[in-house]
Structures are given as C-alpha cells and as structure tokens.
Amino acid sequence: MSVANEPPTAPAPLTIIGTGMAGLGVARGVRNRDAARPITLISADSGDEYSKPLLSSALAKRQAPEALAMRDAVGVAEALDAQLRIHTPVTAIDTASRCLQLGAERLPYGQLVIATGAAPWQPFAVPPALASRVFQINDLDDYRRFRTALDGHGGPARVAIVGAGLVGCEYASDLQASGHRVALVAPEATPLPRLLPPPLGRALGTAFAEAGIDLHLGRRLDAIQDEAETVVLTLDDGAVLAADLVLVATGLRPRTALAAAAGLAVSEAGIQVDRYLATGAADVFALGDVACVDGLSAMYVQPLQASARALAATLTGTPTPVSYGAWPIMVKTPLLPVAALPPREAPARWRIEGEAGDLVALAEDTNGQLLGFALTGRCVRRKVELARAAPPLLG
Ligand SMILES: Cc1cc2nc3c(=O)[nH]c(=O)nc-3n(C[C@H](O)[C@H](O)[C@H](O)COP(=O)(O)OP(=O)(O)OC[C@H]3O[C@@H](n4cnc5c(N)ncnc54)[C@H](O)[C@@H]3O)c2cc1C
C-alpha cells in the first residue's frame, strides 16, 4: 500500500566501471527498461563504442581504425542519457561507504557494476627502446597505435606474433591476408591449443604454412632486442627472427585487482559472482571478461550479452539469473575456418572424423555423451546441429 503524499523514492544511481561491450550492454539494457535512472559510466580508455572482435579482422576488410568506432564518448553519453567519464581509472572501491576513488576524488554510488574486462599478460620484459615497435592490442586505442606504426611502415611489414591462441591466430590471418610477412611463435606444438585437439590444430598450422606464415611452434622466446631499425627475436632453438613490428598475444587475465583490494572474492578466473552476477558485497555486481560466473569464466561475446540482459533486468527490479547455452566460439581464420565449444571438463576421448582440413572432433565422456566439439574447414557448418546436442555452458 502506498502512503498518500509520500515523495516517490528516487532510483539509486547506477555506476558502471568499464565501457566495453559488457559495461555498455548493461547500461543500454537498464536505460531501455528505465528512462529515469541516473547512470554514470567510468572508463580508463577513450570511451568510444566499438566491437572488439572486429579489431582482428579489420585489415583484410580494409577498415581504418576510425571506421571501427561506432560512436565517440559524447555520442555514447547522449544515446544512453548517461554521464560518461573517460580516461578516468577507478583506483579503489570502498564497499562499506559505497564510494569509488578516482585518484583524489571520491564518488558515491548506489549500485555498482564492475566491467573492467581482462588485461594482456606478457611473460617477458620488453626493452624500453622497443616500446614503439612491440604491441599488445586489447582495445581500440591500442589498435590505433598499432595501425599507425604498421601503416607508417609504408609497405609490407615483417610482423612477428608471439602467441598462437585466438588473438594471435586471428591477427596472423588478418596480417597475412593484407600482404604483410608474418611469423608466428608459440611454445605449444599446434595453434589454438585450448580450442583444438592436436589433429585439428595441425590442420590449421598447415593452412597457415601453405599461405606463407612462418611458423615457429614448440618454441619459446629467449630474447627480444633492438638492432637499429629491426627487432630481433631469439628463440630457444637458436633461431633468430628479424621483424619490423612485434605483436604480443600471450593471453589475457581478468582485471581483478580493484575487486580484490576491496575485499571481494576473486580467483585467477575472475571476480566470483553468482548467477545474478552478484559479488559478496551488497549492490556490487560484475560481468564480462572480468567475471567468473558460478565457477565459469567465458571470455567471449555471447556470454557477456546474456549476462548484460539478465543484470539489466535485476537492476531494474526483476531479479534474473543468467544462463549460457552451448555457444561455440567462432575463430576468424578464413584460411581455415574454426568453430569450437571446449568441454568444461577433460573428455574421456576425442573422436575425430574427416580428412585434410575438413575435420570434426567430438569430445565425449565414458558413455559416449557429447561434452563439446571442435570443427575446421567445411565441417564448421555442423556447429548448429552439434550445439543442439551439447550441454549448455551454464544450464
Ligand atoms: C582481438 C580479439 C578478438 C576477439 N574476437 C572475438 C570474437 O570473434 N567473438 C567473440 O565472441 N569474442 C571475441 N573476443 C572476445 C571479446 O571481444 C571480449 O570477450 C569482450 O570484448 C570483453 O568485453 P568487456 O566489456 O568484458 O571488456 P573490455 O572490452 O576489455 O572493457 C573493459 C573496460 O573497462 C575499463 N577499465 C578497466 N580498468 C578500469 C579502471 N580501473 N577504471 C576504469 N575503467 C577501467 C576499460 O577502459 C574498458 O572500457 C575477441 C577479443 C579480442 C582481444
């Protein structure tokens, strides 16, 4: 029963740290459901809206970095009717007083969403003299810097990529397709080791080698040095590679430091949240690459979109648990298309069928039950049928 003349309760201001696909997805979802809710977004970067997956396929599509920004920060703030603070790293979260620390400034919040993504992890030091030639690309600002160096080279560049996971393989494919000379170095014996069992990884390696990518698999980097205009990489077998530019793609780690310092539960897999994306602190939530939802870290777009939809409903008064379907990861390697749904636990066996580059690998338990799959070449078209038979990631 409402009391006559009682002033309406003002909706608690919502503050979102991070303007990647996760942070903006929640902001958009909340705004669609509530036109009046005050929303503040805070970003360490430029706040431009862009689709991160497009970064690793832009060269072959002849897209300039400017074409990748769908909206600048002003456009984002207008479209969401929100406050947007850019180039403003949050330095601390105080859950007891419900305040953020932005350098010397304290900013109160009503409800808080942490969507700080994941940061590149680099297992070796780079000499300062190489800073303008060795890159990690994890956002549009990084990509702009890389493209300035690449385009400034004024012709086909020698690019060495360290790391053969999704990011390394996609950039290798994109750079090769746009006429650059690519070397790919990784300690694992085959590309995409976390997505593909070895026979399918070898098929991808063969497609790369046939296209002219210089593969150095099963090799670690021993040294990286500056020699005049050339970056010299020495591998653990003594091989020496000369490159104009180097891309380090050795993995991403959830940015959990803020949450950990605030006393929230974190692990290497991310900030621990439940199916409502709730942390252990009242009115503090997390989603996207930084979050580990009910024990699962899924650092790709479909899970964060589902999380953003569920969290927007929760934040606007309809508590909604998130669930993830059996959503395969599509790898953008046109030289040999790849789709994979990695099994959550190690399978009893991989059943592998097909020939040459057209392969199906089925991850099965001891009863022959499908746990996940990996597909290459023309077999990628079986992804929908197999996803229907596979267990959901978070049912
Ligand atoms: C090259 C590449 C290709 C990919 N391709 C695909 C693909 O094809 N399909 C797919 O599904 N997925 C793909 N992914 C993964 C997908 O892009 C990510 O899962 C997704 O973009 C993560 O979004 P996010 O919002 O969680 O994090 P991010 O986009 O990293 O955003 C994090 C935000 O937090 C901000 N931030 C961080 N720390 C602070 C702080 N202390 N204070 C304030 N702000 C802070 C950052 O500035 C940024 O705005 C790809 C990833 C990469 C790198």
Write the layout of secondary structure elements.
Layout: E1 14-17, H1 21-33, E2 39-42, E3 49-50, H2 65-68, E4 69-71, H3 73-80, E5 83-85, E6 92-94, E7 99-102, E8 105-108, E9 111-114, E10 118-120, E11 134-135, H4 140-152, E12 158-162, H5 166-177, E13 181-186, H6 198-210, E14 214-217, E15 221-227, E16 230-235, E17 240-243, E18 245-248, E19 252-254, H7 257-261, E20 266-267, E21 270-273, E22 284-286, E23 291-293, H8 301-315, E24 329-331, E25 338-341, E26 349-355, E27 358-364, E28 370-376, H9 383-389
Parallel strand pairs: 1-2, 1-9, 2-5, 9-22, 11-18, 12-13, 12-18, 13-14, 21-23
Antiparallel strand pairs: 3-4, 6-7, 7-8, 10-19, 15-16, 16-17, 20-21, 24-25, 25-28, 26-27, 27-28
Helix pairs in contact: 1-8
The protein binds flavin-adenine dinucleotide.
Flavin-adenine dinucleotide binds at residues 17-23, 42-45, 52-53, 55-56, 89-90, 115-117, 138, 167, 170, 255, 258, 288-289, 299-301, 304, 332.
Please provide a written account of the structure.
This protein is of the alpha/beta class. The protein has three domains: 170 residues, 3-Layer(bba) Sandwich (FAD/NAD(P)-binding domain), CATH 3.50.50; 127 residues, FAD/NAD(P)-binding domain, CATH 3.50.50; 53 residues, 2-Layer Sandwich (Enolase-like, domain 1). It is 23% helix and 29% strand. It contains nine helices and 28 strands. Strands 5-2-1-9-22 form a five-stranded parallel sheet, with helices on one face. Strands 11-18-12-13-14 form a five-stranded parallel sheet, with helices on one face. A five-stranded antiparallel sheet has the order 24-25-28-27-26, with helices on both faces. A hairpin with a 6-residue loop joins strand 24 and strand 25. Flavin-adenine dinucleotide binds next to helix 1, helix 5 and helix 8.
